[in-house]
Amino acid sequence: MRVLVLGGTRFLGRRVTERLHARGDEVLLVHRGRHEPHPWLPVAHLRTDRRELAARAERVREFAPQAVVDTSALTGSDVDAVLPVLPRVPAVVLSSQDVYEAFAALRAGRHHSDGPLTEDSPVRAERYPYRGLGYDSVPEDYEKLDVEQRWLARGAVVLRLPLSYGPHDWQRREDVVLRRLRAGRRSIPVGPGELLWTRGHVEDLATGVLAALDRRAADGMVLNLGETGTPPLRQWFEQIVAAAGSDARLVRVADEVLPPDVALTAQQPQHLLVSVERARAVLGWNPGEPATRVAESVRWHLAHPPDTTWTDADTAADEAALAHR
Fold it and tell me: Of 132, 138, 142, 161, which residue is the least packed, with the fewest Cβ within 10 Å?
């Protein structure tokens, strides 16, 4: 199959591209060239901003894609720029579980709903959740609801992704613990750590993307991906410590003195626990066992540490918190 991938050089998009290539698909990557691994796969590249794709329409026609995977749309205008250039073929688009109203409630420190979220759960009433926050990598008009609306009108499969982790995760989700272990810290301040936030390993998420690409039963549907069982945040931290072979302890401290990077371990009024039963039923998809996946991820991140260092200020923040246990 000839698959055009928008993005596809970073984290989940990278793994999807690798999987497509490994199974023999012909791939054309449309990307800006900012995160392309070197050396990497012998796949075709069209290095351009997606908003300039119309000027390269002839290359798209030459490739004649039989399917499209959009890994990088963050705004409605991101989609508007490419839809006129792309043929009406099966498509899979990556969205986020930040579309749910429960996500807005979690960020606002309020309660919205109980129980696992399904694809029919209420979505956010307010748009543009990161506007005005000054995130360098997030545009002011970021809105996955706008992305979904446009792609669903074309019959695409929309995959809502959880908190994602694993090899090549540029956000390094486990590093909240691993950075302390690398610094030789043996006591890690945490709150109660009861938050349930569905996570997903990159390998399982890539398997879900390929299943959605191959099965027409999912066309025009929204599907949640993630773990089938989500341990609380404190247990996840404990799994990371164990996978790293450390004897460090998680030490309960008062919520108000938690260092910022462990603030989510404080008491939270809203969970972001998501049901993936629809994806399992429609796609025949089953993710791996969470503890095993965490161990796999931790091994990779220990072997590929970041350039950042632990500072005296970090030590002072942890020690100040530990003094209020």
Answer: 132
- Residue 79 inside a domain? The answer is no
Residues 289, 199: contact at Cβ < 8 Å? Answer: no
Residue range of the domain that includes 220? 90-322
Amino acid residing at 173: R
Closest by alpha carbon to 189, among 197, 177, 172, 199?
177
DSSP 30: E
As beta bridge partners, residue 114 has: none
| Structure confidence at residue 128 as a pLDDT band (50, 70, 90) | very high
The first and second tokens of residue 154, run together, are: 């074309």
Q: How many residues does the chain have?
A: 325
Q: How far apart are CA 314 and CA 113, in angstroms?
A: 35
Distance from C-alpha of 255 to C-alpha of 269, rounded to nearest angstrom: 13
Q: What is the number of other CB atoms lying within 10 angstroms of the CB of residue 324?
A: 12
Classify residue 36: in a domain, yes or no: no
Amino acid identity, residue 202? Answer: V
Residue 18 lies in a domain: no
pLDDT digits (tens, 9 = 90+) for 11-21: 999 999 999 99
190 pLDDT higher than 80: yes
Task: Spell out the residues 6+ positions from residue 252 whose beta carbon is closer than 8 angstroms to its own.
Answer: 190, 191, 192, 325
C-alpha–C-alpha distance, residues 56 and 73, integer Å: 18
Domain count across the chain? 1
Per-residue model confidence as pLDDT tens digits over 50-98: 999 999 999 999 999 999 999 999 999 999 999 999 999 999 999 999 9
DSSP state of 117: B
